[in-house]
Amino acid sequence: MHIRKAREADSAELWVLMRDLAVFEKYIDSFAITPEVVRDSGFRKNPPDFHCIVAEETGKLVGMLVYYFLPYTAQNRPAVYMKELFVSEGHRGHGVGRRLMDALRAAAKEHNCAQIKWTVAPWNQAGVRFYEQLGAKENRDWLSFDWNV
C-alpha cells in the first residue's frame, strides 16, 4: 500500500472513487462530477479547488481523501477541511483510512494549520467510530446549515 498525493493521471480513477462515495452516502442523484471536472478543478486550475491524497495498491487506487485549506480562521492560522474520505469496500478495516488521515495530519502540520475539520453523516456509525478511534472529538458547539442558491 502506497500513500501519496494524487496526480492528474489519477483523475479517472479518482472519479470512480468519488462516484462510489456518492452511492455510499446516498447523493448519487445529485452527483455532478465528471472525470474532466476532477482533472480541471484539482490539477489544471491554479490554485486548485481541492487537494487529494490517495491510497494505491498494485497500481490501483483503493482510497482517497479530498481536502482544501481554509486560509483565514480566528486562530490566525489556516485550517484544513476534509471534504471526502473513502476507502473501497474490499480494503476497509485494513488501516487504509488511518494512513490517509495520518497523511492529512502531516500536510496540515506542514502548512501550519491549527485544526482539521470535517462532517460525517449521523447514520454512518462506522465512520463515527473510526474518527473517535483516531482521537477526534465531535464538535457540538456549532450546528451545520446548508443554503441552496
Polypeptide structure, described:
The chain has about 150 residues and is of the alpha+beta class. The chain has a single domain, classed as Gcn5-related N-acetyltransferase (GNAT) (Aminopeptidase), CATH 3.40.630.30. Helix content is about 35%, strand content about 20%. The protein has 4 helices and 5 strands, in the order βααβββαβα. The protein has helices at about 10-25, 35-45, 95-110, 125-135, and strands spanning about 1-5, 50-55, 60-70, 80-85, 115. A 5-stranded mixed sheet has the order 1-2-3-4-5. It is globular, with a radius of gyration of 15 Å. It starts with a strand and ends in a 15-residue tail after the last helix. The model has no long low-confidence stretch (mean pLDDT about 95).
Features:
alpha+beta; single chain; five-stranded mixed sheet; Aminopeptidase; 149 residues
Largest sheet entry? 5 strands, mixed
Task: Give the tally of β-strands.
Answer: 5
Portion in helices? 25-40%
Radius of gyration: 15 Å
CATH top level? Alpha Beta
Indicate the CATH architecture.
3-Layer(aba) Sandwich
- Sketch the topology as an H/E string, one letter per element: EHHEEEHEH
Number of helices: 4
Beta-strand level of the residues, as a percent range? 15-25%
Task: Please indicate the count of domains.
Answer: 1
Low-confidence stretches: none
Q: What overall form do the CA principal axes indicate?
A: globular
Report the average pLDDT across residues.
Answer: 95
CATH fold naming: Aminopeptidase
